[in-house]
Hints:
The complex is a heterotrimer of chains A (about 300), B (about 250) and C (about 280). With about 250 residues, chain B is of the alpha/beta class. Chain B has helices at about 45-50, 75-80, 95-105, 115-125, 140-150, 170-185, 200-205, 220-225, 235-240; strands at about 5-15, 15-25, 30-35, 55-65, 65, 80-85, 160, 190-195, 205-210, 215-220. Chain B has one domain: 3-Layer(aba) Sandwich (Rossmann fold), CATH 3.40.50.300. Chain C is an alpha/beta fold and about 280 residues long. The longest helix of chain C has 18 residues, at about 185-205. Chains in contact: A-B, B-C. The interface of A and B includes residues 200, 201, 214 and 300 of A.
Amino acid sequence: xxxxxxxxxxxxxxxxxxxxxxxxxxxxxxxxxxxxxxxxxxxxxxxxxxxxxxxxxxxxxxxxxxxxxxxxxxxxxxxxxxxxxxxxxxxxxxxxxxxxxxxxxxxxxxxxxxxxxxxxxxxxxxxxxxxxxxxxxxxxxxxxxxxxxxxxxxxxxxxxxxxxxxxxxxxxxxxxxxxxxxxxxxxxxxxxxxxxxxxxxxxxxxxxxxxxxxxxxxxxxxxxxxxxxxxxxxxxxxxxxxxxxxxxxxxxxxxxxxxxxxxxxxxxxxxxxxxxxxxxxxxxxxxxxxxxxxxxxxxxxxxxx
Amino acid sequence: xxxxxxxxxxxxxxxxxxxxxxxxxxxxxxxxxxxxxxxxxxxxxxxxxxxxxxxxxxxxxxxxxxxxxxxxxxxxxxxxxxxxxxxxxxxxxxxxxxxxxxxxxxxxxxxxxxxxxxxxxxxxxxxxxxxxxxxxxxxxxxxxxxxxxxxxxxxxxxxxxxxxxxxxxxxxxxxxxxxxxxxxxxxxxxxxxxxxxxxxxxxxxxxxxxxxxxxxxxxxxxxxxxxxxxxxxxxxxxxxxxxxxxxxx
Amino acid sequence: xxxxxxxxxxxxxxxxxxxxxxxxxxxxxxxxxxxxxxxxxxxxxxxxxxxxxxxxxxxxxxxxxxxxxxxxxxxxxxxxxxxxxxxxxxxxxxxxxxxxxxxxxxxxxxxxxxxxxxxxxxxxxxxxxxxxxxxxxxxxxxxxxxxxxxxxxxxxxxxxxxxxxxxxxxxxxxxxxxxxxxxxxxxxxxxxxxxxxxxxxxxxxxxxxxxxxxxxxxxxxxxxxxxxxxxxxxxxxxxxxxxxxxxxxxxxxxxxxxxxxxxxxxxxxxxxxxxxx
Lengths: 305, 249, 277
């Protein structure tokens, strides 16, 4: 058993891989080794995996319905047996609501990342490689978006689009791509004049091929790191919109909206606001730790050694 | 007979600074031509201008008798390839040797890429054991061999060499120079080689041009240089300098 | 006579995640007030030897040595503060590329004066005076102008002269030059070597000249130490290089193209595994 594990390890770390697959897996494994050497990053990963697990099995895990409460018997009950995190003013079990809320959080975070990161990557890489007028135009547009505080801009968009979770996602995505464009452009500028890009150009490769296949892959790792570190901010923005009533609409168990509805009793029934607050804190922390670990593991400069 | 590479009155200017000033030269098919000079002499700029990476102000470049326009066509890269100076900087750090060699084949739509990659690796003396390695798993000499394989895989007739061994150790340099001579013989390639080292140029080339500040100083046969039949002081200085240090009495 | 520098069984190793890389493996030599060349290819441990003597080895490395004595002082035994005081004042090092070893945001003159003042308690006027003298000594024609220039405003050769001026201004007794001319054009190279030659001679310093270029080192130094895979394979007087015995030394000499010789293909160095033992 342990011998088999050892040979698998050797296979992965081989200096002379025999196939494309082995080379790729070996590289991934080395990143994983660097990543897993960092305890805090592992803790972050664990938190995120837990979030995914909870979101996937929310129906099985939650003891009560997240939407329908028991108005007569159990309004604003403190944490205790039966309701581990207490109940809110509608008599709904807060634990169940948080468990179901994890789906919304994950939904928001993933959608924003899927929309914003590619836009930023494309804008930045194209601007950086093309240079000239295109660079100026694209980067000034980016600057316009960067000039506004993120939440204010998101507020304006939601106000225009109408409240709701989809529009909140859209608004956050629109406001969060500019930093990615800046990063992608900066990375592109550093590799654009390198010999290996010149070498590809001398193969006769078209500019679009160079950007797509040779420059973008180099930008991706720093982008992943930045996106992961931004996840906490995205969660907070989504929670902020929810808190202001512009994000998820009741009775959806969105964590920000839950805090908003709990603030009326924050002094006497603190758990109503504290429980979703703690959930936001832990998940944000998890993403931050994960991002830090990824930075060390994926940093192209570190891995060239 | 039309020369493989002809350059007439080539001038390259960055802003107002002239990096190359009215350079003309002709390289016959199968010949090896050397460009010698110190930094700022314009020798590397000349290679860049041929590949279309430098702003040409005046003059013409022709390959096999046909003049090149402002932009290079795909067919040009099938004929002319280049090996860069720094083997650490000229290979994409995130791509395996396999991927590096596949790219030119994919761009030009070759079908038998599998066989060609294996053949190219064999030709530069690496063998297929290196095929799936990343550049950081290779030594400097091995990287330069990969770079040569990449340049040769499109079967060009002209190879531009920009100080291909200056970043390598002396013993590795000998191996790479031997390899270059070998492939030139096997394929009848035309070389245009840039170096600051007179000894390397006389070893590799039949004719050479000494350059300084973007201008031609003089043009020699390698045998003239070996016999020290030079007419200009600058060339003589270079010859003295390359002999090493002589302690003041 | 007591040697200026005594290196006895020096080891430098770098622990990595999986293994320990031995960069220097039991190097021994002595140095008087003479010019010693250390020659080897990349990875031979020549630079790490120089760095270990200077105390510039990266913090994660392990250094041990039977003895590592400079002028009778055991360098590995003294506290870091005392080591720092020695560095620059009595021991000094010139690195390959002046572009990376000069501070880009400080004028050249100020950097040299700063070096001087960190080792001696002298006033502004005097440090300026001595800096200008030093710039003149490295044959910078207009020292007053160069004093106020920034590193990016001067050529490579000028930068390396400034670097030499900075390293010699405090009057060190031992100078380690790690590939001081490799980044320079051949004609500039000779100028720099001439300056080094004169200053080392005039001041009676010890010099360790680290380079990959065997012939250059042989023409410049009194004695040559040839390193391979972290070990010294051969030590010999520079004049006797043609009679070198070790096949590695001979191979290195042989494999370089020479003007006026026709050898196709060039002889290639066949590395024998027992050289590294």
